[in-house]
């Protein structure tokens, strides 16, 4: 029996798809489900909305991940690599490579966590040249977001962001 594990539940595949079910019985419901499956909808929305802005980022000489790293640090201040990888939706080894490149270019610095509870954590901060690099893009990102959300109106826009933030909060692993 196939077991599928999620942080909040374990599903038994035998409970999901009955072996004796005919294909035509499964497809209509499955197709409707897949078309409305939350991760698929989030992914589609993300791809459509973000690709518009990513073209602007790349036209300004940054990769999308460099933009995410620099803008995250510019908005949040110093943070550890684990937290940065979570906020930028990237794997730690990938973030480490991007940070090496940005550090060589003088856009970020790494330093020890002298005042924090865990002194083993390396913190990353954006430099003034890094802030300069993303300042205009931050303004462009805010304008892009305004244009994307305008058709929804203020109430729906606020509710959408609140629901998404709640999902993020509920499913984010604790940062150690």
Automatic annotation (TrEMBL):
Residues 35-169 form the HTH marR-type domain. It holds the Pfam family MarR. GO terms for biological process: response to stress. Coiled coil: none annotated. SUPFAM superfamilies: Winged helix' DNA-binding domain. InterPro entries: HTH_MarR-typ (IPR000835), MarR/SlyA-like (IPR039422), WH-like_DNA-bd_sf (IPR036388), WH_DNA-bd_sf (IPR036390). One of its GO terms (molecular function) is DNA-binding transcription factor activity. Gene3D superfamilies: Winged helix-like DNA-binding domain superfamily/Winged helix DNA-binding domain. SMART domains: HTH_MARR. This is Transcriptional regulator, MarR family.
